[in-house]
Amino acid sequence: xxxxxxxxxxxxxxxxxxxxxxxxxxxxxxxxxxxxxxxxxxxxxxxxxxxxxxxxxxxxxxxxxxxxxxxxxxxxxxxxxxxxxxxxxxxxxxxxxxxxxxxxxxxxxxxxxxxxxxxxxxxxxxxxxxxxxxxxxxxxxxxxxxxxxxxxxxxxxxxxxxxxxxxxxxxxxxxxxxxxxxxxxxx
Length: 187
Prior knowledge:
Blueprint lengths: L4 E3 L3 E7 L6 H8 L14 H12 L4 E8 L2 E9 L16 E8 L9 H15 L5 E4 L6 H9 L3 E8 L2 E9 H7 L6
Helix pairs in contact: 1-2
InterPro entries: Acyl_CoA_acyltransferase (IPR016181), Acyltransferase_MbtK/IucB-like (IPR019432)
Function: Acyltransferase required for the direct transfer of medium- to long-chain fatty acyl moieties from a carrier protein (MbtL) on to the epsilon-amino group of lysine residue in the mycobactin core.
Pfam family, one: Acetyltransf_8
């Protein structure tokens, strides 16, 4: 599946499969950047990043994708089956649930509206699969910026959950809620 999402004034977004070895150096710079604190890989070595993404590549229930902005790497997206990864035993999964994480690359030249355009492109990609009924996220309760972005694309808070590594704000977004929240936006 390859979604092309056009965000007026921001650019064109696409995704491709992540190559754990070829993309590791790029990802290492992203996940260890101070702005990626909630990614919890601040002290990761290059080998740690390679290993983590090789494990994901080998996992049938977890996938990593590299997001491109106008053809250049700009964000990382992970999708997972919450019935088998991340949220097992922490909520009652429904058929068609897909878990998601995303990380925008650090930049010295910010573009207004960029991160919102990224999460919109990520959600459009996930909902391109007709089997996806809801997207489920579990950001850190302290990540207020992501909570606002999630709300902007249609997520509703289910409640706080305790994961081994953090207190998280479990939220879900249906296809209808996403479409209502982004109505009028080019996709």
